[in-house]
Fold this protein.
Amino acid sequence: MSNRAIVGINWGDEGKGRMVDLMTESYDIVVRYQGGGNAGHTVVNEKGKFALHLLPSGIFRDGAVNVLGDGVALDPENLYVEMEDIRSKGISITPDSLKISSWASLLFPWHRDLDALEEARLADGKYGSTKQGIAPFYADRSRKKTILAGELFYPEAFRKHLRQILEWENLTLEKEYGAKTYSEEEVDKWVSDYCEPMKPFICDTGKYLLAAQKEGKSILFEAQLGALRDLDRGIWPFTTSSNTTTSYIAIGAGMPGVVIDDVTGVVKAYSTCVGEGPFVSEMSGPEAEKLREEGAEYGAKTGRARRIGAYDCVATRHGVIRQAATEIALTKLDVLSYMDRIPVCTAYKVDGELTDEFPFPSALDSAEPVIEYLEGWKCDISSVRNWEDLPKEARDYVSFIEESAGCPVVYVSVGPERDSIIIRENRKEEWLSEHNS
Ligand code: GDP
């Protein structure tokens, strides 16, 4: 069987959770390999509506094994709360259905404090963090100031290591920010409340995944956020603190030589962006307000209103390249059904020059969008399941996206429910023959 990655092409919130939920049917294992609980996938299926933050989206499917890999920001407290919430809705989670890497690092409560303190200090210059501690966590991980989940199995060494880290974190909290510090008792209680319950789920997931790949099991890799938030090639410094791109899978899943046969890049039919940073095709006023309402664009984790923009050809093409996407899943096409004509950003104007290449981050502030309009279809398409049954204008819109992105659109999502999807079975082959001849 083949392996697949489902990744975000834009700023995140493209609807990856809904695509993973659809595709888990065909995979034995679902892996989260980066990021933390700072974003949220919304999944609607026969079991209900769920907001997932850290758990892989395969958690709802009987028989699927879900893995939290080496590269995730493992927040035991939030994971505990999320697991309890999902279990309370009748979903069973056992060490057979969830495996947590012994090589994943633990996110501690002070990471959340430090995140909020730094955002407050930055005031107007803030990054727009969700304050889930992700940036301080990854910074600490790089300077070796956090603890691996597997250390929990060596209690004496764990305690000693934790004491050393606590001393240093308290110094930072007190001296840099004049903030509340943590007592040893407080931290020990936190470990026993939230880390101990994780122990049955912890194992060497990299070893497990390599063996599974060798046995021919199929693996789905699920990313958080999108290409424009990638730590190395995103809209620096308004990126996240981990790599959101497929290049990181080998490290984050602990699978050297991983084979990824298909990369499904998830693209939204218009643009949204949460938090601060440049957003060239941003719209404002009643036009943006209406699209936000129609698309219910409010953050799954924070409830924050998302910034709204026209579909951005420049950003999407960049995302397709950075993710090495082999196909696109286009989501929320139904949301545009009310529009007479649909704005799209076809190029940027930077220093008076037109470009269709995504600029170096420092040039983004001065970039202006070039907006063109495509015909709307003005009818409800949410019950359409075949490509041929879409109105011509909707098909033209999708074709415009695939041509400008340089990648075939194989999936067209027309609603949040699992089956609200148009699957173009042979589109990849057609595309290759159209573009190689
Ligand atoms: P993710 O983080 O990439 O999974 O994205 P989010 O879950 O934050 O945002 C996607 C939102 O759009 C969720 O509320 C989904 O239920 C919803 N959604 C996904 N696909 C579609 C679609 O095709 N049409 C509509 N109307 N809603 C969708």
